[in-house]
């Protein structure tokens, strides 16, 4: 049970990182590993090797690697190449991290005879932790494996603000999520600035929506501030005549809740809060047990709002629903 709780902070960012990487893989490499981006023949496309990665993970036994991605690309000279990407979200130092990168690399080569390029994205908060090599030297035998590590903390916010690459926005959102972990009002303002930036960066409608989903996940707000932000988004888009974000399901529901509130439909408002909380719990903790569903269904508005606030820093369902919290 303790092990699962320890992984919860990582789980908070796993899904949005995985999703955004798959949507914008070329932009991902252009931002984090430009030398690889320049060497790839993008006209031939690329392929995510999920089955191959699963086999490597089963046989490697080097711990949890659910954030890894293995991608097949082609170099400009026609050679097939594999790119192994590991995104390390955990905030603590991992003593066997470099070993895990090495094991994945040699297992991939052993199983498929394909060269593997290693890239680690370190999204933790430990400035001095920068693994780039696994090596040993014993009785005349030497082994050394080097891979590229990118530390999100190294990117100056000024440069990120000036970049039009989607992963500048992704990196900014992640850094703001770390910095504003216990400062909800600051998180609200940071989130609003990032959302406005989406419209100032010449992104397409679909890019705006995809990046908003990432921002919305990692910069989670309690219901009161979330509602305030939704109103600002709707007003902003109406003024700009660019109904991108407000057209998606999440804000469509919130607009419906606002109309219901104006008509005095307090039941609709309570139902919306309960539905939102259930979705948040499902996305972070998986299936919600019956006892928690019953508490939400029977709860009054103040309790729903309180649980929504606790959700921001909660690492388990008990943290949210505990009477002593």
Fold topology:
Blueprint: H1 2-23, H2 25-32, H3 34-39, E1 47-48, H4 50-60, E2 69-74, E3 80-88, H5 97-112, E4 116-122, E5 133-138, E6 141-146, E7 148-151, H6 157-162, H7 166-179, H8 184-200, H9 205-218, H10 223-240, H11 249-262, H12 266-285, H13 290-298, H14 301-311, H15 317-321
Parallel strand pairs: 3-4, 4-7
Antiparallel strand pairs: 1-2, 2-3, 5-6
Helix pairs in contact: 1-9, 4-5, 7-8, 7-9, 8-9, 8-10, 11-12, 12-14
Molecular structure report:
- The model is unreliable at 1-11 and 258-265 (pLDDT under 50).
- It is globular and about 70 Å long.
- Helix 1 (2-23) packs antiparallel against helix 9.
- With 325 residues, the chain is of the alpha/beta class.
- The chain has 15 helices and seven strands.
- It folds into three domains: 2-154, no CATH class; 161-242, no CATH class; 265-325, no CATH class.
- The longest helix has 22 residues, at 2-23.
- Strand 2 (69-74) and strand 3 (80-88) form a beta hairpin.
């Amino acid at each position: 049970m303790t092990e699962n709780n320890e992984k919860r902070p990582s789980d908070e960012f796993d899904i949005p990182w995985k999703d955004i990487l798959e949507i914008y893989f070329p932009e991902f490499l252009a931002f984090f590993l430009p030398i690889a981006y320049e060497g790839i023949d993008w006209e031939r496309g690329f392929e995510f090797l999920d089955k191959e990665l699963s086999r490597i993970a089963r046989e490697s036994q080097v711990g949890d690697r659910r954030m890894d991605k293995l991608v097949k690309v082609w170099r400009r000279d026609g050679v097939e190449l594999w790119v192994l990407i590991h995104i390390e979200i955990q905030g603590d130092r991992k003593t066997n991290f470099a070993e895990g990168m090495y094991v994945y690399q040699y297992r991939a080569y052993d199983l498929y005879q394909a060269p593997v390029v290693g890239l680690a994205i370190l999204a933790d908060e430990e400035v001095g932790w920068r693994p780039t090599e696994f090596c040993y030297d014993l009785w005349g035998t030497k082994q050394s494996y080097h891979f590229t590590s990118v530390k999100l903390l190294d990117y100056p916010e000024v440069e990120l603000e000036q970049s039009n690459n989607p992963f500048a926005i992704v990196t900014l959102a992640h850094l703001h999520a770390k910095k504003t972990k216990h400062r909800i009002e600051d998180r609200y303002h940071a989130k609003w600035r990032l959302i406005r930036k989406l419209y100032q960066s010449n992104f397409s409608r679909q890019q705006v929506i995809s990046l908003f989903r990432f921002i919305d996940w990692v910069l989670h707000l309690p219901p009161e501030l979330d509602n305030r932000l939704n109103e600002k988004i709707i007003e902003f888009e109406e003024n700009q005549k660019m109904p991108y974000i407000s057209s998606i399901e999440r804000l469509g529901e919130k607009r419906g809740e606002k109309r219901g509130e104006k008509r005095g439909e307090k039941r609709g408002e309570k139902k919306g809060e309960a539905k939102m909380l259930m979705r948040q719990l499902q996305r972070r903790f998986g299936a919600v047990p019956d006892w928690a569903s019953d508490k939400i269904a029977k709860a009054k508005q103040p309790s729903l709002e309180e649980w929504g606030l606790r959700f921001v820093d909660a690492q388990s369902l008990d943290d949210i629903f505990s009477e002593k919290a």
